[in-house]
Design brief:
Elements: E1 2-7, E2 17-22, H1 31-40, H2 42-54, E3 65-69, E4 77-82, H3 93-110, E5 114-117, H4 129-142, E6 149-154, H5 157-169
Parallel strand pairs: 1-6, 2-4, 2-5, 5-6
Antiparallel strand pairs: 3-4
Helix pairs in contact: 3-4, 4-5
The structure holds ligand AR6.
EC number: 3.1.1.106
Keywords: Hydrolase
GO molecular function: O-acetyl-ADP-ribose deacetylase activity
């Protein structure tokens, strides 16, 4: 698997699947979630509604992932995962790890070969960027998957620098 870092907006990525940092409601929000629903159009929300009705009446649990089509995005699928809100009193790293593992499991189920991830939980959910980057890189490196082109699409120079550091210093 090749891991690359890209500066920019995940909604422009021409990949099989883009991962959305969603919330349990699957009904959209700010950050990456807002951008994906804005650019992807109403088809994504319509499928999210169906998933809520058929499988996730109480919402998609934190750490899990589920796929919809990608509407008007260049990608084929959106994999929605719910990151943990960062906590100073409780270590929720296992839930962030689970987001990456579960997203890759869903990607494999779909037959996706190229997947773009944002820095899950590192925005509105308040996860410190350095730790979010290390957890992301360590986890994808340790996960067995058929994905061969895995990209982290980082919105800010700080996020890009943190992922670059993590890519250079962890896992080896
Ligand atoms: N492309 C790539 N990265 C982005 C983009 C984009 N278009 N927009 C923001 N980022 P966040 P979270 C970066 O807040 O912390 C939503 O309301 C951003 O700078 O999107 O998991 C959901 O509905 C940050 O580094 O996700 C949830 O309620 C990273 O993506 C909640 O926010 C993640 O930030 C989820 O919060």
């Amino acid at each position: 698997m090749r891991i690359t870092l890209v500066r920019g907006d995940i909604t422009t990525q021409d990949v099989d699947a883009v991962v959305n940092a969603a919330n349990s409601s699957l009904m959209g929000g700010g950050g990456v979630d807002g951008a994906i629903h804005r650019r992807g159009g109403p088809a994504i929300l319509a499928e999210c509604r169906e998933l809520r009705a058929s499988h996730y009446g109480k919402g998609l649990p934190t750490g899990q992932a589920v796929a919809t089509t990608a509407g008007d995005l260049p990608a084929r699928w959106v994999i929605h995962t719910v990151g943990p809100v960062h906590s100073l009193t409780e270590d929720r790293t296992h839930l962030l790890v689970s987001c990456y593992r579960e997203s890759l499991r869903v990607a494999d189920e779909l037959g996706a070969i190229s997947v773009a991830f944002p820095a899950v939980s590192a925005g509105i959910y308040g996860w410190p960027m350095d730790d979010a980057a290390r957890t992301a890189i360590d986890t994808v490196r340790a996960t067995r998957t058929q994905v061969t082109d895995l990209r982290f699409v980082l919105f800010t120079p700080e996020a890009h620098a943190a992922f670059e550091e993590a890519l250079d210093t962890t896992g080896s």
